[in-house]
Design goal:
Strand 1 and strand 2 form a beta hairpin. This protein is α/β, with parallel strands linked by helices and about 350 residues long. It has a 5-stranded antiparallel β-sheet. The protein has helices at about 20-40, 45-80, 95-100, 135-150, 155-170, 180-185, 210-220, 250-255, 265-275; strands spanning about 100-105, 110-115, 120, 230, 245, 315, 320-325, 330-340, 345-354.
């Protein structure tokens, strides 16, 4: 156990813990020296100016953060007032995507992007309720693979990401194809464990082999950020095998990867139709020019016969995210929030300020 050695009155010192004791005293003296130097600097005019700059800078950064958080509050309020039967980018909650900078209290402004999380592919469908794979999760894996390839990733990279996501969430320690379990993650320079559980947030996906922070948030080369196309937020409807995709807000690539027979050209027609007038029901997709009538209820070949386009799509959502940047004349700060809407009630289920 560490102990302090008292210096006797004759000026001698007990060196029983010579190395450790001297190191501890040296650290204390260093801290005291820095404190005294700081006091001396602050007693000068330059020091006073420095202190003022630190205080002002901190206050401006705090203002910017509250601008960002105020932006999240505006999104929450818009979601609470919105009609819940149909959600599209023509709703008030999506206004931030077109408004640009919004002034707040004559102090600063906020600018941001609001997304419908249920317009994206939900990676939670890659495992079933028991944390295992089955014919339905295999279909979800095929959808994600097709989406990643459509976004511009090579087939080997797409396969690595799909397999690694399965391994990240499944309940066993067996490596799936090109995936990874604890052996891989524990050997990294900054190791961490493979949770074998569902992700707590979309940010967690940056830790998965094959993805990383750059691909998730910024994109790589011609590949756009994955965060705009995949999510971990959303619930299944009673009796459903999959978390449905909102046709009114889904990117064209997500629509194109819903079923194998869906072409990119048809997905573009669907997007053009909903951008002109949002779908009021999933069945209205059959009114899109060039849409084959049989495609809506037709079983997907090679998978369980209860899988069809009809059970994969919807026109309303419950989970939304917002990325807001708050700015003053001298500072900026960002906030990211995910909201769950239940009727007119809106709850912030995830928040990150940075």
């Amino acid at each position: 156990m560490w102990s302090w050695h008292i210096c006797p009155s004759d000026g001698t010192f007990d060196h029983g813990e010579t190395g450790k004791g001297q190191n501890g005293i040296a650290l204390i003296l260093a801290v005291v020296s820095v404190f005294l130097l700081t006091v001396a600097v602050l007693q000068t005019r330059a020091g006073v100016n420095l202190a003022e700059e630190i205080v002002v800078s901190g206050a401006q950064e705090m203002q910017a953060l509250y601008m960002a958080r105020s932006g999240l509050a505006l999104v929450s309020a818009a979601l609470g007032e919105d009609e819940t039967q149909v959600d599209s980018f023509q709703d008030d909650w999506a206004a931030a995507n077109d408004k640009g900078a919004v002034p707040i209290a004559e102090v600063g402004w906020a600018v941001g992007k609001v997304s419908d999380e249920e317009g994206k592919f939900n990676v939670l469908d890659l495992v079933n309720e028991d944390g295992e794979s089955d014919d339905y999760t295999d279909f979800a894996a095929q959808r994600l693979f097709d989406l990643l390839v459509e976004l511009g990733l090579g087939e080997s990279r797409a396969e690595e990401i799909v397999d690694s996501l399965i391994d990240w969430m499944d309940s066993d320690g067996t490596v799936t194809g090109s995936g990874a379990e604890n052996l891989h993650y524990s050997s990294l320079k900054d190791p961490y464990a493979c949770p074998n559980d569902l992700p707590a947030s979309v940010d967690e996906l940056s830790l998965v082999k094959g993805i990383g922070a750059v691909l998730l948030y910024q994109g790589e080369a011609e590949v756009p950020p994955l965060i705009d196309f995949i999510t971990v937020y959303g619930d299944k409807k009673p009796g459903d095998r999959f978390r449905r995709v909102n046709l009114n807000t889904a990117p064209i690539q997500v629509i194109a990867s819903l079923i194998p027979d869906m072409t990119l050209e048809l997905a573009e027609e669907i997007a053009a139709s909903r951008d002109g007038e949002p779908f009021n029901s999933a069945a209205e997709i059959k009114d899109v020019p060039g849409f084959p009538d049989e495609m809506y209820n037709e079983n997907v070949a090679g998978f369980p016969d209860d899988i069809s386009l009809a059970v994969l799509i919807d026109v309303s959502s419950s989970y939304f995210s917002a990325r807001i940047t708050g700015e003053t004349t001298a500072a900026s700060s960002r906030a990211y929030g995910v909201f769950q809407r239940k009727g007119q009630s809106v709850e912030l289920v995830y928040y990150r300020g940075f």
